[in-house]
Protein 1
Amino acid sequence: MNYDAAFKNIDDTLWKDAGCGSELDYIEQTSWILFLKYLDDLEKENKAAAELSNKTYAPILSNEFSWETWAAPKKADGSLDYNAAKNGDDLKDFVNTELFPYLKSFKSVANDANTLEYKIGQIFSELSNKLQSGYSLREVINKVNELQFLSNEEKHELSSLYEDKIKNMGNAGRNGGEYYTPRPLIQAITQVVNPVIGDKVYDGAVGSAGFLCEAYSHILNSKELTATEFQQLQTSTLYGKEKKSLAYVIGTMNMILHGIEAPNILHGNTLGENIADIQEKDRIDVVLANPPFGGKERAEVQQNFPVATSETAYLFLQHFIKMLKVGGRCGIVIKNTFLSNPDSASILLRKQLIEECNLHSILILPKGVFTGTPIETVVLFFEKGLPTKNIWYYMLNTERKITAKRNPLNQKHMSEFVKIFNTREITTNSWIVDVADINNNTFSLDFGNPNIFEEIDDRRPQEIINEIEVI
């Protein structure tokens, strides 16, 4: 079927409903309905697998709350039974007063926070049905019911369309943009940091989980995984935490659509934890993240960190360094002002990076990479445990200005960077700075491209006038 058309039809229905006023509402409402359809298809898969093994399967949801009972009852021929399907106020009342409370209750009865049952309770504790018309809700349910999650191809197409919805949410502005990091940038960062099976990969500012989804795909396609390795990838490789409710739900759904059945994403404020409490057993191998920049944290949160600062990204940077094992690798997006800011927090953090980590590479990104903000950014790549000897800089230059709509960042833009990252070649766009050249007082990392020379026009005014007249 045409999944793209189905998603557009769903958005059209949501747009007409008085309870949904933005792209944020569209993706929130699509997410919970998609999740329940996914859960129904997963239950079918698990039941079929159990029957093949001559085992009894106990469904997660009780019969009255299963998708095929309330959302898509079927006739004997397998078609939708419109007469038996709830509609209008009956449907809306059932969803609001019975279905959602039932699904929320899973959070308190689940045995383990890493189980799918707990995720169900967590997701529906963060959501509410915003559709005001039960007839609009029925239309959306019917369209979602046409989607299938049974094959890898179907899941891949659905995950791509869901990514597009996240992107549209970011392009719509407001606070949606903070959830979306351009996929080509995520792919490039993940490719060069290169998480492998056996690594624990972490994003403490998970957003829409783009980095964790890409890490999953990168590891999955890196080699032929054994059954044990695939189970390890599913259950004990990818970890995240997210403060905001909508982002938590979107991130969880995004990972599910990419093939991770019970994502290890926790809902809570990463920065609310004192980093002094992080123990060796908590540490991880790889950090991939784009923490929110420009945010401000309260004084009591700042007390959890050795370098007190209200800048959210600086607190996350301290958290990530603490979370890494010795030899752990990190790729983190941060404002380019971090390279040269004269405030004490910036200086202390740059000093820590240089002395405690091998800050081996810095990617300088052009304006326009992130939707809705003029902020310029860089990506820091470092390994924990050894001091920095030299830093390879790469300035991403594009022929046309990067804009979200007319010339968005793409894989071609990132190709040279990825190609020469490991060899650290010197090109017109890249150069190396020795640690001895870094100022021991400011620890400024702001070193311009020495390969770019500005031509000095030393002509006299009359010479310029004469040339113009000739033209």
Protein 2
Amino acid sequence: DISYFVAVARADRTILARDAFGIRVDMPGNHTRVVALDELSPTIPISPGESGAEYRIYVGLSLTPEEMEYNRKNR
């Protein structure tokens, strides 16, 4: 299982909304890479007079503290 997040932010990086998601991915044998697809329909709260260019969408993996520590030690 892989946990990830999607966040909507203003251009100044102020987060307006953030949601967590999960997806199950099979990694048979000793594979180290996999491709997965998950479809979402985020809503961006564009106010009158604003443009979509004033917003950013961030997508990333949600790591446990142990995973973060492992990644920091094994850069």
Protein 3
Amino acid sequence: MIKHIVMWKFKDGVVEADKLEMKRQLEALKGVVPSLIDIEVGLDVVGKDASKDMVLYSEFSSMNDLAAYAGHPEHLKVVEFVKTLVCERAVVDYEI
């Protein structure tokens, strides 16, 4: 199984409604992208200097399934929206 973790920092001035819309769009990929087993998206509640603002946790059966998710047209639409809101992105993919 592959775990795919993404963390973002929002640009200055991003409003709460857009943050929630990003979360909604990401979570809506479950059931739309066949290779996506599970997804969880959370907004940071602590706000420390080292904190990112949002995190995505997702699961895939294989690296091929992760690649299929990454290239899926519905995922790519969400990516375009996300890019308008964020200034930093960090990713970790690991196998268990």
